[in-house]
């Protein structure tokens, strides 16, 4: 397995519900290293760039409104097979399908408020890390 970096985010619902410590603890217990971390309220323009692949979908405006509606915790995490392993730890996007023991299985309330985000590929990880932390955070 390869050691890699990926982008992880605790969304506004996770921050509002005070799940920051729990999510980071699970990341660290899984063996990830948090190499960059910041809390911010995402500006509208950054949210549109972050979700650019959904621009023409009917849920785009709601997605941008949600992600800009409160603070998030953005992170660069590093570990063995980080993209795949972080996505496993997050669980399915829809909490109805997320296994117990995953973050979404244990904490997500709806498909729209599902606590965390993670890059789905190396290309996406590189793009999202650059958006939130600049190219130097990619390594």
Walk me through this protein's architecture.
This protein has 139 residues and is of the alpha+beta class. It has one domain: Nucleoside diphosphate kinase-like domain (Alpha-Beta Plaits, 2-Layer Sandwich). 40% of the residues lie in helices and 20% in strands. It contains 7 helices and 4 strands, in the order E-H-H-E-H-H-E-H-H-E-H. The chain is globular.
What are the SSEs and their pairings?
Layout: E1 3-10, H1 12-16, H2 20-29, E2 33-40, H3 44-50, H4 60-67, E3 72-80, H5 82-90, H6 103-107, E4 116-118, H7 122-133
Antiparallel strand pairs: 1-3, 1-4, 2-3
Provide a concise account of the structure shown.
The protein has helices at residues 12-16, 20-29, 44-50, 60-67, 82-90, 103-107, 122-133, and strands at 3-10, 33-40, 72-80, 116-118. Helices cover 40% and strands 20% of the residues.
List keywords for this structure.
40% helix; single chain; 139 residues; Alpha-Beta Plaits; four-stranded antiparallel beta sheet; alpha+beta; 4 strands
Strand content: 15-25%
Query: Number of helical segments?
Result: 7
Percentage of residues assigned to helices: 40-55%
Q: Tell me about the biggest sheet? A: 4 strands, antiparallel
Low-confidence stretches: none
How many individual β-strands?
4
SSE ordering = EHHEHHEHHEH
Q: Could you tell me how far the N terminus lies from the C terminus, measured between alpha carbons in angstroms?
A: 18 Å
CATH fold group:
Alpha-Beta Plaits
What is the CATH superfamily?
Answer: Nucleoside diphosphate kinase-like domain
The first-level CATH class is given as: Alpha Beta
- Shape by Cα distribution: globular
For the record, the count of structural domains works out to 1
Which class do the helix and strand fractions yield?
alpha+beta
The main sheet orders its strands as 2-3-1-4
CATH architecture: 2-Layer Sandwich
Radius of gyration: 14 Å
Mean pLDDT: 95
């Amino acid at each position: 397995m390869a050691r890699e970096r990926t982008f992880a985010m605790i969304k506004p619902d996770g921050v509002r519900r005070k799940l920051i410590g729990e999510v980071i603890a699970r990341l660290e217990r899984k063996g990830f290293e948090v190499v960059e971390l910041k809390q911010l309220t995402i500006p509208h323009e950054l949210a549109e760039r972050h979700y650019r692949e959904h621009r023409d979908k009917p849920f785009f405006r709601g997605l941008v409104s949600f992600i800009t509606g409160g603070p998030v915790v953005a992170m660069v995490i590093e570990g063995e097979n980080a993209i795949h392993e972080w996505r496993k730890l997050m669980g399915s996007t829809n909490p109805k399908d997320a296994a117990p023991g995953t973050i979404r299985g244990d904490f997500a309330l709806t498909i729209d408020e599902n606590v965390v985000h993670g890059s789905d590929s190396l290309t996406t990880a590189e793009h999202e890390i650059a958006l939130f932390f600049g190219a130097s955070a990619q390594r």
